[in-house]
Amino acid sequence: MGAEKKELPPIPDRLPVSVVDAHTHLDACGAVTAADVTAMVDRAERAGVSRVITVADDLAAARWAAQASTWDPRVWAAVAIHPTRTKDFGEPEKSEVERLANESRVVAVGETGLDYYWDYSPHDAQQDAFRWHIDLAKRIGKPLMIHDRDAHDDVLRILEEEGAPEQVVFHCFSGDEHIARRCVDAGYVLSFAGTVSFRNARGLHEAARIVPADQYLVETDAPFLTPHPFRGRPNEPYCAAYTVRHLASLRGEAVHEVAESVRTTAERVFGLPTVTTG
């Protein structure tokens, strides 16, 4: 049973419209070299996930993500310091994150935000770092990619106090319908991971149903959060195709409609080139 859980899920049938995996961690999936990255994105493209954004959570990952985004034209990057790593977030780290965030294939500042589930970093350090990342995103004109775990009220409060960037993405949105409506009303974009397919995630299901077509994305957060029925197995970007289909079922929409919404919203939010073919 343990060996079975370690197997990657099968690659699903190709989506009718190509989509973007809005948040993945190719390095944590095991990619090291350019060949590794290309192999992962090739697998994703077989399922109709033709582009990915690989995301950093510390400086080493940020350097790698920025470099990996130059290895394959289907890969872009986002860089920031994860809230759980902000206990020692000083000027050298800020300078390096800002340098990397300005690179041309880095399309977002993230993932940043607040995480009150773990106790690796004090809340005040997390909030200070979050405010700094908000300011960075506004100064360089790039989207803000938010990590929000058990911290909805403080995340929304700080965004309001600081003044949100033009584009804000709630990575792996975890709120209920009430939080979703607050985010939607503020103009934020909600990114749904494999958790939206979990049978016990009823609040998240309701949230997914009410989000307008131009305010949601799909992501894997690979290698974590593999969609049902493969929960517990390793995740890769191609599994975003499973989440697209689950989301279509929840919303009572055709798969091609959801895929088209995901594609066009990702292109708008991250400034990606427009792709019109499946």
TrEMBL record:
EC number: 3.1.21.-
Top-level taxon: Bacteria
Listed InterPro entries: DNase_TatD-rel_CS, Metal_Hydrolase, TatD-like, TatD/YcfH-like
The entry's keywords: Hydrolase, Metal-binding
GO molecular-function terms, A-Z: hydrolase activity
Alphabetized SUPFAM superfamilies for the sequence: Metallo-dependent hydrolases
Enzyme superclass (EC): hydrolase
Protein name: TatD DNase family protein
Organism taxonomic ancestry: Bacteria, Bacillati, Actinomycetota, Actinomycetes, Pseudonocardiales
